[in-house]
Amino acid sequence: MRPEIMEEVEALRGVNSVKIKEAHEAGKKVVGMYCVFSPQEIALAADAISVTLCGTAQAPIEDAEKELPRNLCPLIKSSYGFAITDKCPYFYFSDVLLAETTCDGKKKMYELMGKIKPMHIMNLPQTAEGNDALEMWKNEMIKFKSFLEEKFGVEITDEKLKDAIKLMNRERSAMRRLHKLNAHKPAPLTGVDMMLAQWLKGFNVDKEAGIELIERLISEVEERMENGIYAFDENAPRILLTGCPIGSGSEKVLKVLEESGASVVALENCTGYKGLDVLVDESKDPITALAEKYLSTPCSCMTNNNGRLDLIKRLAEEYEIDGVVDLTWQACHTYNIESFTVRNFVKDELNLPFIQIETDYSDSDVGQIKVRVEAFLETIGSTVTA
Amino acid sequence: MISIGIDVGSVAAKAAAYDGEKIIATALLPTGWSPRESGEQLLKEIMGDLNITRDDISTIVGTGYGRVSLSFIDKKVTEITCHGRGAHYIDPNIRTVIDIGGQDSKLIKLNDKGTVIDFLMNDKCAAGTGRFLQVMANALEVGVGDLSELASGTEPANINSMCTVFAESEVVSLMAEGASKEAIASGLLHSVCNKTYSLASRMGVEDKVFFSGGVSKNKKLGQLLSNKLGAEIISSNESQFLGAIGAAIIGYK
Hints:
The complex is a heterodimer of chains A (386) and B (253).
Chain A: H1 5-10, H2 12-25, E1 30-33, H3 40-45, E2 49-52, H4 61-64, H5 74-85, H6 89-92, E3 96-100, H7 104-113, E4 119-122, H8 131-152, H9 158-181, H10 191-200, H11 207-226, E5 238-243, H12 252-259, E6 263-267, H13 286-295, H14 306-318, E7 323-329, H15 333-349, E8 354-359, H16 366-385
Parallel strand pairs in A: 1-2, 1-3, 3-4, 5-6, 5-7, 7-8
Chain B: E1 2-8, E2 12-18, E3 23-30, H1 35-50, E4 57-63, E5 75-76, H2 79-90, E6 94-100, E7 105-110, E8 116-121, H3 130-140, H4 147-151, H5 164-176, H6 181-203, E9 208-212, H7 219-229, E10 233-234, H8 242-252
Parallel strand pairs in B: 1-4, 4-5, 6-9, 9-10
Antiparallel strand pairs in B: 1-2, 2-3, 6-7, 7-8
Helix pairs in contact in B: 2-8, 3-5, 3-6, 6-7
């Protein structure tokens, strides 16, 4: 049995699509975003709503393929398909879009998407190291701020930025506390529920209400833990899921893992823990603090991306991980290539079983994935009992 | 007591019986349209061969793609784990299993107890699998079983494509240019060997390698792999039963 509040969490998407319509009609501005590199604080400081746009469902991919190549990552195709078919209410009500130059696929897709709606593109440096990269990224923060000021006819003061930073830090802290509940052995929440709660925060039109809901969920889960109610028993293999982002509609691998008896306790990906690990420094100049926080995101579009290995190591210890699963969306070159590095690191440095699963959003390969996942769990089982 | 392993694959269903020391019987049937019925039929056959009843059997373990449809089994285990245990039974010095079947190729690494410590599988395309060779044999108008002999003793034609669709047009072009069937057959086996080698290189190959699956019947490919990997390759007539043997042994514990 899942916590009762999960139903409220699951309803967020529907509730928020009504809220965003009402807010739009009341004259509130909306900034649509896709990525964990997007500085939501700047949008909030412009008194706008920041929302994550749809891109995790298979349905609109067919339409996207009329204009995009087939052998492109499903996340890019899905995002673009939602945009051109106008099936994502959040896209529909967005006044402007914010995009970043992360991977090549997204960068070129954004050129096409920018023709549909006003779009601002932030030039992300290709490395997170060194002062040049930080200065450049700081400058990009200022450009985005000016873009919104001009577009919405507002002034984004340091004061407003600081308030937005505090609000977002509170949201991150709440989400982080929720994620850390699963560090307990056995885990109180399924990986699927954890993913849903983490992913749905992106659609929260009312941040305060979202934080309050997560805090109630944490309380309910803590109460269940006191009463010995957990999602899995103690023997379920504990999995860290890393790699490409997932959301509702693209949770195939996560589902197969849990249906096969694993407990996915840590979601290292950018729809999970990655963006929660570092808070924005509230004592610094807000633009500098924002640039530092967002540039520290350990994404595979960066070279090098050793921060990802450090984070995997930390989570593996903290969450008592038995095996690491690396999910790669087909045609995602950066995560696909990096998987070799992660494999060697996990096997040699952490001494843990590792498997990479490369797939797309469709159900065509579920049978093959099941064989791999079950065999992987058997491998874990035999090393644990040996 | 006796334990039974049943491996229902995409093409054939296999059974093996284990008495705690050795494999005492095997049986084989085409899977046909109903994996459940062929599994049940196979169980009947092997019980008939051994002249035993269900009461003499301690455990039945199911494996292979059809394992989920078998209602009479006590336990299901994936073919990857079963292949590992089966190879260990055949020769305890085996540390790597290369299994190339109709739709999958797998590389399985074992420890000294026959436990799987790592494995890799091809992605969902048919490159380097039995299906690839089947399509190419059709293009050459020869049987898939003839490729090995055809390829022996000739210099390989150069085939670059691993994709089944593109390689087929490459083969057609080579034939148009007048390349011999022998050279093309040899080129195809070299390309499967290279594909398998790159899969194997991702994990590394140690000591003895067992080559299983339907494609392992191709002797020439076995030789090519042995040279390329620099390892001793073992294959045996029992190789088709590897999964069933492993399942029976796992069930006995």
